[in-house]
């Protein structure tokens, strides 16, 4: 549930339906929780695409299967390139994040749709998923005490005997870990929300603003791709920092 007061925005279908049918409880509820509604809609779209892409696994793939294989292969190479072969088990998680965020980002460019990524509640939920999975991975790889030892910093040198430096580093790393979900979520939300506000503002200029609107639509499409890549790149780096793997960077 998120409605930005005073922020110009392109009209979306849920807002239109809620305005046209004020007595309809379903439309009012869907509009009240519009970010969740659009998120679930995009999950459905991705699920349908995945179903048809994987329904028939032909040796000579069709266009949809071929495109899916290229995307999955590219994401797998991207993850393994940073985490090594051991990191392949994280490809489904990171790959799903990329596709979901990308679809959310471009949803705001489709007429009468809105990007759920323009809401901090959506991006924070994704960032928290990354945060808890990374912490779970670190504890599983090193054990709880080993993970605390890892966050206390290595190598420690002669200052380790003072106890002060390891404790200081531990506190510093804990604060750093807690800040990551905030920075990760705000970066994505800020860029997508800013694009939506700008496009909503330019759309109010009518035909005179069409050249600027077209240019910024193109830039917003590029931003949609870049922000999905950045989110997943940082997620992969977070995993690399806690995986006990010499191949990880």
Provide a descriptive summary of the structure in words.
The protein has 249 residues and is mostly helical. It has one domain (13-242). Helix content is 72%, strand content 0%. The chain contains nine helices and no strands. The protein has helices at residues 13-20, 25-32, 34-55, 63-83, 91-107, 120-142, 144-151, 164-203, 210-242. Helix 3 crosses helix 4, helix 3 (34-55) packs across helix 5 and helix 6 packs parallel to helix 9 (210-242). The two termini are 39 Å apart.
Q: Whole-number radius of gyration?
A: 22 Å
Number of domains: 1
The shape is globular
- Largest pleated sheet: none
Instruction: Report low-confidence residues grouped into runs of 5 or more.
Output: 245-249
Could you estimate the helical fraction of the residues in percent? Answer: over 70%
SSE pattern, N- to C-terminal: HHHHHHHHH
For this structure, the quaternary state is: single chain
In DSSP terms, counting alpha (H) and pi (I) runs of 4 or more, how many helices?
Answer: 9
Q: Ends: how far apart?
A: 39 Å
Report the structural category.
mainly alpha
Report the β-strand fraction as a percent range. under 5%
- Average pLDDT, rounded to a whole number, is 85
Say how many strands there are.
0
């Amino acid at each position: 549930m998120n409605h930005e007061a005073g922020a110009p925005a392109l009209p979306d279908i849920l807002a239109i339906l809620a305005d046209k049918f004020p007595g309809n409880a379903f439309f009012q509820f869907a509009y009240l929780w519009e970010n969740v509604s659009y998120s679930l809609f995009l999950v459905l779209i991705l699920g349908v695409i995945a179903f048809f892409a994987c329904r028939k696994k032909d040796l000579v793939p069709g266009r949809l299967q071929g495109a899916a294989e290229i995307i999955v292969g590219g994401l797998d190479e991207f993850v393994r390139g940073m985490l090594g072969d051991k990191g392949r088990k994280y490809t489904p998680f990171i790959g799903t994040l990329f596709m979901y965020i990308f679809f959310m980002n471009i949803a705001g460019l489709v007429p009468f749709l809105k990007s759920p990524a323009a809401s901090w509640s959506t991006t924070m939920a994704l960032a928290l998923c990354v945060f808890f999975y990374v912490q779970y991975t670190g504890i599983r790889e090193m054990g709880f005490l080993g993970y605390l030892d890892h966050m206390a910093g290595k190598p420690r040198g002669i200052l380790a005997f003072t106890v002060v430096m390891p404790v200081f580093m531990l506190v510093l790393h804990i604060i750093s870990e807690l800040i990551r979900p905030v920075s990760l979520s705000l970066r994505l939300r800020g860029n997508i929300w800013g694009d939506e506000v700008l496009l909503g503002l330019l759309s109010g200029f009518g035909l005179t603003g069409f050249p600027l609107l077209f240019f910024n639509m193109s830039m917003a499409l590029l931003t949609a791709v870049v922000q999905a890549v950045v989110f997943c790149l940082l997620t992969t780096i977070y995993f690399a920092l806690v995986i006990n793997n010499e191949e990880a960077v």
